[in-house]
Amino acid sequence: MKICMRTKWVVATGIGILFVAGCETGSYVTDSASRVKAADWKTMQTVDVVLKEYSYTPDTLKFKAGTPYKLQILNRGENNHYFVAQEFFKAIATRKVQSNADGEIKAPYFSALEIFPGRSLDLYFVPVKKGIYSLHCTNNGHEEKGMHGAIVIE
Ligand SMILES: [Cu+2]
Predict the structure, then answer these.
(1) Structurally, how many domains does the chain consist of?
(2) pLDDT digits over 15-66, tens only?
(3) Assigned domain for 97 exists
(4) Distance 16 CA to ligand 1 centre (A)
(5) What is the Å distance from ligand 1's center to 64 Cα?
(6) Is residue 99 part of a domain?
(7) In-domain check, residue 25
(8) In this structure, is the dihedral angle defined by the CA atoms of residues 6, 127, 111 and 24, taken in order, positive or negative?
């Protein structure tokens, strides 16, 4: 299984110390449109993640490759919070992001989502590439205060 964490892994080798910065070279899922079309959206699973100061609940999200999902990203905090998971977004076939009553944004992939206090965004997707991916908030200092997590595709 591929492990793509943002944390730098230090690997001791015979020739010195090698710093591995995760797998940040992968490309996005290029056949997203056909995967989204082929998925049986009647079997869609709904998963919630709650953002607040300074956490994701749950802090580990688990998905099964090939199953269609709606991930409801709910900001129950007082600040804007981000859902930044670049390697995860590269590992899924994205259908759309829906802003509840406001509308839908259709794009082949996203790299980050920002959710305003008291609001939510719904990410519709099909997990494709198995692995462990990091999640964090890029709002000022939030990650250092604990706003980080992991996303697992099994
Ligand atoms: Cu935050």
Answers:
(1) 1
(2) 444 343 445 557 899 999 999 999 999 999 999 999 999 999 999 999 999 9
(3) yes
(4) 37
(5) 26
(6) yes
(7) no
(8) positive
